[in-house]
Amino acid sequence: MKVLKSLFSGPAPWTLKSNLAYETLYQVDVSVVVTLYNYQEYIGECLESLVAAIRFDPALVVEVIVVDDASTDSGAAVVMAMAQAYPDLPLLLVKKSQNSGLSRSRNLALKLARGQAAFILDADNLIKPACLSLLYDHLRQSEADAVYPCIEKFWTLDGKVVDTVSSQPFDLTRLLSANYIDAMAMFSVKSLFEIGLYDVGMVHGWEDYDVWLSMGFAGLRVESLPRVLGGYRLHADSMLIRFTSHALEVGRYLYDKHRHALPSLPEDAVLFGSPLSLLRDGEMAQQAAVTQDG
């Protein structure tokens, strides 16, 4: 892999490494953004699913940008080995020197992306061979700002499918109650920049939930493609499982951020996965603190 020249005079916050397939690629259709942190046991299978998708539709020009968020395992070495083993996988590895979180990692990749569309994929998840081609065609033909597929949840130990996510059409009213759409989706890169990319203030998860909310409040067009095109891996360290203890804290953050765009809601409403009354408790506490300081 080639190490690209640094843009920094001192120690760079990241290094960029690419293979020949990436360096000779032009007029990219889709930039696949893969975020990696200590998932060396899963990243190889994730990239293999991307190879199958690239080979499924040779007319679709795809680049893959993997951002390693200062992992402490050998995940980056696996990525480099995959880039060498699959010469038709156009790959850029961004290896960060310090961990800065999922939102910053995705935003960095999007700023490096050369495609007009971006597909978001976590390092422990998979896609079906037709995924990129079908989503890109739908995005273009519908002129939507984003399109997401139905995704199967499966246990990593036995591969058993236990549920689906992102299986319902986009509905902002329903989304206000709780998130039902995964991060795995294809976006217009321009539209992501329009909403300010991923919120770096969301440090406990649900960065993708905030993106869907922001798109809805901005009046952007989001569509679903009712076909299973991806797999969400369930394991002990999956984000879905780790998030539960921070649900109320994140709900209060979303309430504070989006409350001026919210419709009138009944007192017993459920908002962002929590009772509205609990979210407002946080707001009232802030108001009381301001009053005391005054």
Descriptive notes:
The chain is of the alpha/beta class. It folds into 2 domains: 2-239, Spore Coat Polysaccharide Biosynthesis Protein SpsA, Chain A, CATH 3.90.550.10; 243-294, no CATH class. It contains 11 helices and 13 strands. The chain has helices spanning 20-23, 40-56, 75-85, 102-112, 131-142, 172-177, 189-194, 207-217, 239-242, 247-258, 276-293; strands at 2-3, 14-18, 30-36, 62-68, 91-96, 117-122, 126-127, 146-155, 161-165, 186-188, 222-234, 270-271, 274-275. The strands form 2 sheets. Strands 1, 2, 3, 4, 5, 6, 7, 8, 9, 10 and 11 form an 11-stranded mixed sheet that branches. The protein has a two-stranded antiparallel ribbon with strand order 12-13. A hairpin with a 5-residue loop joins strand 8 and strand 9. Helix 2 runs parallel beside helix 3 (75-85) and helix 10 (247-258) crosses helix 11 (276-293). It is globular. It starts with a strand and ends with a helix. Residues 5-9 and 284-294 have low confidence and may be disordered.
